[in-house]
Specification:
By secondary structure, this protein is an all-alpha fold. It folds into two domains: 2-105, no CATH class; 112-299, MetI-like (MetI-like fold, Orthogonal Bundle), CATH 1.10.3720.10. It has helices at 2-28, 34-39, 45-55, 61-74, 82-87, 110-145, 150-164, 167-181, 193-232, 235-242, 247-275, 279-285, 290-299, 303-331; strands at residues 76-78, 93-95, 102-103, 108-109. The strands form two sheets. A two-stranded antiparallel sheet has the order 1-2.
Length: 338
């Protein structure tokens, strides 16, 4: 088991290195001068060159990638050029490891920007994840056990209706009616646990989390239903029933274990994508998380921040894959072979 985990971690690290290399190639090997956007639209050519020099954009992109990789491990100082740091030491900004660059648009290290936004996106993602996992698996299992009945058709049909609605419409509906008109919940605004306590934190996250959960839950209802029905036709389950094993034990110990394997794979990747920034939900509820930062950075062409966001999302996906592979091995020991 340990050798299996080590292999997956090594593969994940290699994938992350390749991803960072490709990202730098796509963003900084293009004919677009990032210094011009960092300096501003009406910036004179002399100041653009100085900005390129300060941020290291005047170097070849493989050298920039090498400096970036070293910064992730050891940290970096900005401006990049040593002569500029010596001439104006009061303007030097130290970016501790893991350093993902410096944003001239926001005048701070990209790592600092992301640290402020990650708790917001992570909180929304975790609440949404718990809602869609619990609701999706429970409703999918109920639909499978009542196959062909009114309950089955009602659960599947309702899930498809929510899946068809755009996320922004669901979010606006939840703000307008449950929060504003009916007053069941407060109008969402992110409140850290340290400020509002667990209940204040959770009550402000419920509607954004539900907005995302309703969309993902529809897929999990259908997938869970399909795999539970498929597992129930296996010979070993019919044998267990014939021997008089209680139905609940057959369902929990045998049927659900077989059905959970593909669901775990989906759950890990979906959680990683939501952690990267639920753009629409954060925009609708005005949550200042990774999704909103991604939109703002794209509009202002803040390349260092965009690169940092891309690599952070890639890290989430790769780490999620590693965790999924390990959980996969616990659920089905056969995957450890090879």
């Amino acid at each position: 088991m340990l050798a299996y985990i080590v292999r997956r971690v090594i593969v994940g690290v290699i994938m992350l290195i390749v991803m960072s290399f490709v990202t730098y190639f796509l963003f900084f090997a293009s004919p677009i001068d990032p210094g011009r956007f960092a300096c501003g639209k009406s910036c004179p050519p002399e100041l653009i060159k100085q900005t390129d020099k300060a941020l290291g954009f005047n170097k070849a992109w493989p050298v920039q990638w090498k400096d970036f990789a070293v910064g992730v491990v050891k940290g970096r100082d900005f401006p990049e050029d040593k002569s500029l740091r010596d001439s104006a030491p009061q303007l030097v900004s130290h970016c501790a490891a893991p350093c993902l660059g410096y944003s001239v648009v926001n005048l701070q290290n990209v790592t600092t920007e992301l640290k402020d936004k990650i708790p917001v996106s992570a909180s929304v993602a975790m609440v949404a994840f718990l809602l869609w996992i619990i609701g999706g698996i429970a409703l999918g299992t109920i639909a499978a056990l009542t196959k062909g009945s009114f309950i089955d058709r009602g659960v599947v049909g309702t899930s498809l209706v929510f899946y068809a609605f755009p996320t922004f419409w669901v979010g606006l509906f939840l703000i307008e009616f449950p929060a504003i008109k009916w007053g069941w919940l407060p109008v969402p605004s992110y409140t850290p646990i340290a400020d509002g306590g667990v209940w204040g934190w959770l009550s402000n996250l419920f509607l954004p989390g539900l907005t995302l959960a309703l969309f993902y839950m529809a897929s999990y209802v259908r997938i869970t239903r399909a795999f539970v029905l498929e597992s129930m036709t296996e010979d070993y389950l019919r044998t267990a029933k014939a021997k008089g094993v209680p139905k609940l034990r057959v369902l929990v110990k045998h049927t659900m274990r077989a059905a959970l394997t593909p669901i775990v794979t989906m759950a890990g990747l979906d959680l990683a994508s939501v952690l990267g920034g639920a753009v629409i939900a954060e925009q609708v509820f005005n949550f200042n998380g990774l999704g909103k930062l991604a939109v703002d950075s794209t509009v202002t062409f803040d390349l260092p921040t965009v690169v940092g966001l891309v690599l952070l999302l890639a890290t989430f996906v790769i780490v999620a894959n590693i965790i999924v592979d390990i959980l996969y091995a616990f659920i089905d020991p056969r995957v450890r072979i090879g």
